Amino acid sequence: MGLSVLVAEDEAMMLKAIAFKLQKEGYTVQTASDGKEAIALLETGSFDLLVSDIMMPFASGLELVTAIKERGLKTKTLLLSALGQENTVLKAFSLGADDYMTKPFSPNELLVRIKKLIG
Amino acid sequence: MVSWLESYLYNGFLPVKISSWGILLLLTFSALLFLRIFISRVSKAREYQLQTKYSKIFEDQLTEFIFDEERYAEGSPDHLELIKSLRRQIKVKLRRRVFGKAILLFHRDFKGIPEQRLEKLYRDIGMSKYAIGDLREGSWYEKAFIFTELGQMNIAEALPIVLKYTNHYNSVLREEAQFAAVRMGGAVNISFMADLELPVSGWQQTRIMQELDRVDLAQIPPFFYLLDAKNASVVAFGLKLLAKYRQVDDPEKIMAKIHDEQEEVRLAALFCIRETEMYSAANRLIERYPKETPEVQQEILNTLGFIGDEEVIQFLEDFLYEDTYNIAYPATRSLVRLGFKLSPDSGIPSFNKELYKHTRYELFPG
């Protein structure tokens, strides 16, 4: 079984696309369409990586990073942000996020970064 | 024939007597109206259902097309089959619009190879031809969407049609056409702006400027020609572009704009002078100061802080006695920026002393 990735993204099309790409590369993928669902999945499952949008309903990507740190989980985090969210990105790193990418992004670059984080 | 109804209504609750035929006519009209509303609702619901259905189909197809590069390699059986299938689908206008929205979403969110493949697919299936054709009919908002689509997918051959709408009376249509034109042709195609008659809003200027960030610096042409435009907002935009790209080959032309009739242009000229640090403009700004409106005066005082010298400091020192905040503040700020130090035994009013301390702290917190 491949490494497990949780993808949290409120935009359905983007969620589906990222999940498809990662599944194709051999990762085991679970998806969450909002922050609340992502927290529930983090509590019940074990993930090597969380790929999450920053702006999401119910709980933001930053809150997910905090939740991971508070629970002492080993899950790595890669956040996706829109352009012009520099302060948010800095905050994400200060909270313990491992990497971030700005939308629009290259799916191949996403894959390279994921491989660098979890292999 | 229907006298019982007539009698019932009259005796019951209607204040006037209505003939049986009148009542029948009213009932028939109500029934027809109800039927019309019902049909409209059903057709809208059906359209929404179809949109959702095709949206899902196209999203799946596009996801596979983008991320399964081997399967959908150029000329492969699956690639050819996909093109054939999409060509068939987009013959129907509703499906065409749904596909247009889906491809734009993918194109917006992913860059690199997927972006190029999507643009090629858009052309291969003939979407660009349909979009250009659809511009000839349809409502203004459909046209506005098509402009966005053509611009985003870089369909340069649509540029002549798009340019026709850049001065349209409908502001949404106009702005989308302008944006698409810049997107299709890059910085060179910004020349259409010189002929615009209607004002270009601040928001639109920002959008276009942001779009120009995508253009390689080596391909940015000189923008001085925009200063000859008759439209004040275009001249102001031109000055902002000159500032952004540090185009100061003709400083006289820029400085002349501080005498323009339009305040918008004078403010933009000051912005340009400040951003390009045009030191030679300092004396002209001092001369211009007494003739200006309060807003431009504030901007002159602010600008002097960036291009000033000893002479400017002397001019600004007089404002240390000014009791109007909007004037005293930019003047004091510029003085501090130019390195002026207030003597401890200076006789200026306490308000100005406090303002000086505040601006010093603001500019040099350490």
Describe the structure.
The complex is a heterodimer of chains A (119) and B (366). Chain A has one domain: Rossmann fold (3-Layer(aba) Sandwich), CATH 3.40.50.2300. Helix content of chain A is 46%, strand content 21%. Chain A has 5 helices and 5 strands; from the N terminus they run E-H-E-H-E-H-E-H-E-H. In chain A, helix 1 links the parallel strand 1 and strand 2. In chain A, helix 2 runs parallel beside helix 3. In chain B, helix 2 crosses helix 4. The termini of chain B are far apart. At the A-B interface, helix 1 and helix 5 of A face helix 2, helix 4 and helix 5 of B.
How many DSSP E strands of chain A?
5
User: Uncertain regions of chain A: pLDDT < 50 for 5+ in a row?
Assistant: none
Annotated CATH topology of chain A: Rossmann fold
Mean pLDDT of chain B: 90
Descriptive tags:
heterodimer; A: 119 residues; alpha/beta; Rossmann fold; B: 366 residues; mainly alpha; extended
SSE layout and pairing:
The complex is a heterodimer of chains A (119) and B (366).
Chain A: E1 4-8, H1 12-24, E2 28-32, H2 35-44, E3 49-53, H3 61-70, E4 76-81, H4 86-95, E5 99-102, H5 107-118
Parallel strand pairs in A: 1-2, 1-3, 3-4, 4-5
Helix pairs in contact in A: 2-3, 3-4
Chain B: H1 3-12, H2 20-67, H3 77-89, H4 93-109, H5 113-124, H6 127-134, H7 140-152, H8 159-164, H9 171-185, H10 202-212, H11 232-244, H12 251-256, H13 263-275, H14 282-288, H15 294-307, H16 310-317, H17 325-337, H18 350-363
Short description:
Chain A is an alpha/beta fold.
